[in-house]
Amino acid sequence: MTSANEEPAWKQRAVERSIKTAKLRAEQRVQRFLDAAQAIITEKGTTEFTVQEVVERSKQSLRSFYLQFDGKHELLLALFEDALSKSAEQIRAAAATESDPVARLQVAVSLLFELSRPDPNAKRPLFSDFAPQLLITHPTEVRVAHAPLIALLTEFLTEAAEADELRADLQPRRVAAMVMQTVMFIAQSSVATEDPDNHPITADEVWEFCAQGFVRQS
Amino acid sequence: MTSANEEPAWKQRAVERSIKTAKLRAEQRVQRFLDAAQAIITEKGTTEFTVQEVVERSKQSLRSFYLQFDGKHELLLALFEDALSKSAEQIRAAAATESDPVARLQVAVSLLFELSRPDPNAKRPLFSDFAPQLLITHPTEVRVAHAPLIALLTEFLTEAAEADELRADLQPRRVAAMVMQTVMFIAQSSVATEDPDNHPITADEVWEFCAQGFVRQS
DNA sequence: CCAACAGTGAGAATAGCGTTCTCCGCAGAT
DNA sequence: ATCTGCGGAGAACGCTATTCTCACTGTTGG
């Protein structure tokens, strides 16, 4: 044991100070990678970029990339997490204008649906696109990324339950998970699901489906 | 023009006969690839096999593979289509024991859910696993593969509508699409969605969700 | 000012995988 | 018996992710 534990505080502080600048630059570099990747994704409307592209775009080096990220999947995860988190905030803001719990839920579902569609020209063309891949390869991390949205929906559902507007036998959190999956994935595949002559599924339909189900209420 | 159009019938027949055997062998070879791939998928519980593995397993050659398939995606598509089609039949059979339209739907939803889960040890561990990837790269073909299931659900929903057990404002076909997406994708991600302490989502919950939605009926 | 040094860029090297190509033997038709 | 074309074996190619090498630069401690 080289008494590393009880180093005098002044020394720790000195080290920290000397490290601070390095850490700062490192964060900036990470951010440049993230920005570059986001830009490329937005441009191409797909997540099928190469690490090289990101490196060139960010004017950094491959080595740097792999020093900052464990691999491409970590970059994607970071972007995914960020996008979902920001979307959750956006949805929360939009829903705040509604006072009725059910109306809030409707806003949330509709907006989430719109945000999850592939490429309604730019803005946030992330989401369910590569989520499926990650879902298979890194389920745990995806769950973490989903957390903000689940939390938001759970919150809204709980409020609805307290206002007695929710079916009494349901647990908000579990419904939240199902709603999120449903909305995001239907949005993702709405393009593929439609017939040539059929319109794509709309946000309203999804809302109706989630809220009411399909069985006629007696 | 080398008068290929008005060849005498006998010659055509001769050609056909000579081709017949070749076609037969070709089909057998295709089947061997399919079987090998299915076996590998079943064993590994994933679709991340290499073309090489399939080739070796089927004791054929790479060249043969690419003569029969346009690429790996076509093999996957074929398996996917086959699995969905067989599942549709299986569901139809299981549902046939129910006489009430809604009960039939419940059986269908529950069974589809179980069939769509990743790896409930062997049987049919296909489905939504790689569907997402294909959904992005070959949406049209995926739609074709989905057709049998959509048709089945549409049929059941239509029967329910005729028995006045369906909300009157809904179009069976569109609901069928949403139900299918919902059930299959929730099943797929049920593993990832659960908390360590939370149970995974169950077939019953999914059915309740699809059938009833979450809003309390006045 | 100098010398060690940690961090970084440039880009060559490696490795896995899908896909293509080349060569060659063999079975069936003429 | 020869010709034709399918199909096997596997080398070769191209693209990516990932790792490795090396030289350079700015910082730090003396």
From TrEMBL, chains A, B:
DNA-binding region(s), residue ranges: 50-69
Keywords on record: DNA-binding
Keyword NADP: no
Lineage: Bacteria, Bacillati, Actinomycetota, Actinomycetes, Mycobacteriales
Domain of life: Bacteria
Protein name: TetR/AcrR family transcriptional regulator
Keyword DNA-binding appears in the UniProt entry: yes
Taxonomic source organism: Gordonia sesuvii
Matches recorded under Pfam families: TetR_N
Family annotation (InterPro entries): Homeodomain-like_sf, HTH-type_TetR-like_transc_reg, HTH_TetR, Tet_transcr_reg_TetR-rel_C_sf
Domain HTH tetR-type: 27-87
